[in-house]
Every structure is written in C-alpha cells, then in structure tokens.
Amino acid sequence: MKKSCAPFHPEHLFSHNGASMQSHKKENSGKAKRLVSKLGLNVVRQYYRETGDWYAPILGYPCALFDPYGYIVLSEQADLDRHKIKVYKGDRIFVDNGISSLTGYTYLPISEERSLQPTSNLILLDRRVQDLRNRGPISRPAGNTKPNLVKGASHPEIQRLPAVKAWILQEAKGICELCRQRGPFLTHQGESYLEVHHVVQLAGGGPDTVENSVALCPNCHRLLHFGVDADSQRQKLYLAVPRVKGE
Questions:
Q1: Residue bearing the bigger pLDDT, 223 or 150
Q2: How far is CA 137 from the centre of its chain?
C-alpha cells in the first residue's frame, strides 16, 4: 500500500488542546461502538468521523467507517485500493468527498428533525441537504433572516439551513438560474451539479432564505463573485428569477 504525503495533519483543522482532543477521540470511539452494537454489524474495528473524511489508522478487518448519516464496511485491506482511499503518514486514511460517495455506503435511519438543523460545517450541510432530498419533495422553507454566527477554528462561521439549499436545488432541476444551461457534470446522485449562491452574501448580513438564494453553475457563480460585469449580471438575475428580491 503506497502512502501519500499529506500537506497537513488532519488534526490541524481543529483548535482542540491535547486533553480535549483525547476526549473528542474517546467520544467518537464510543459513538462507533454504539452504532455497531445497535446495527449488529460483524466487524472487529469501528471508526466514527463527523465529517466522514479523515479516519484513524485501521487496525483490523472487517471494519466499519461511520459518519453522522451512514457507514461503509471494509472487508479487507484491498478495499482501500478499490475505493481509492488514501493512506497518509501515520497510517491515517482520507476519503475524497467523504464515505457517503463510496459504493456500498448505507444510510442510517435518522430523524428529519436532525436534517433540518442549521450548521456551519459545509460537509455536514451537504449531507443534511441530501438526506432531506432523499425523503421526497421539500416544502418552501421560511429560512432565516438573521443566520447565527458560531465560533470557528480561526474566525466566526455562519450557520446555514439545509432546507433552503435543498429547496433551491430541487426547484432548479439541474438548470442554472442565470445562464439557463444544465450543470456541467453529474453528481454521485445522478443529477446535474449546481451551487447555491446568496445574492446578498451572508457575510455581508444577507438572509439565508430562498428569496436571497439561487442555483448557479460554477461558472456563473464565480462570475457573480469576481466578474467585471457582476453588477449587470445580478440585475439580469433579478429579472429572471421573480422570487429573488433586490438589495
């Protein structure tokens, strides 16, 4: 198994001190053991990661990797290669796009209430969005006119509502609301990829509501942030999408 050289240690993403880091690891270990027991999985090792990407070194097979919404069982070491899971220095493993992107990922039975909870973690946001969409049609959400700020590792982060993003993507049906072209590629869920853009940025005090959100292809999304004609394109967006309210 060829090991990669990681550009950073995964724990650098967190601001825990040594004692709290050990507590965090113990908590994750406890969650994984409880899930294995509840599900009756026949594994010798289990690992839990809130973001579903970095995991501790695997010390035995078969093992289960968990995130908040599901899990995947690895039967043998060769499964790392089959799933293109990277092994870094110290034998920690990294899963591009999280374990939910892997073939064989199984969703846990979770409550809709949990999927509706706001979060500043973009990986968790996308997981909750996907869970809501898997449940069927989404009613138009009220949103949040004053999104909450939470303490991040290096700066305050804004909590976003999964239902807002889920509804915007549902209504767009894979078509960019600015250029009216289909998203440039298919996602793991088999739909055209789009990004959700807040017309008045959340960092600038904008609301996290469907009236301030649009679904855009990556090109149009960057255009509205960095294009020389961003202002004129924004005006075009106001005319094209009646629900969007101007500044």
A1: 223
A2: 20
Q: Which residues of 50-65 are buried (b: 16+ CB within 10 A; e: fewer)?
A: bbbbbbbebeebebbb
Give CA–CA dist 224/133, Å, rounded. Answer: 27
How far is 228 from 153, CA to CA, in rounded Å? 33
Whole-number Å distance between alpha carbons of 58 and 88: 12
- To which residue do tokens 């292809």 refer? 217
Nearest to 165 by CA among 108, 205, 111, 124: 124
pTM to 2 decimal places: 0.64
Q: Is the pLDDT of residue 13 over 60?
A: no
Structural contact between residues 129 and 116, judged by C-beta atoms closer than 8 angstroms: no
**Nearest Cα to Cα of residue 235 among 192, 227, 175, 203:** 227
Compute the CA torsion angle 98, 99, 105, 110 (nearest 10 deg).
Answer: -70
Q: Which two tokens stand for residue 120?
A: 């500043």
* C-alpha radius of gyration, the chain, whole number: 20
Q: Give the CA angle between residues 42, 112, 98 to the nearest 5°.
A: 50
Half-sphere exposure (CA, 13 Å, Cβ side) for 177?
30
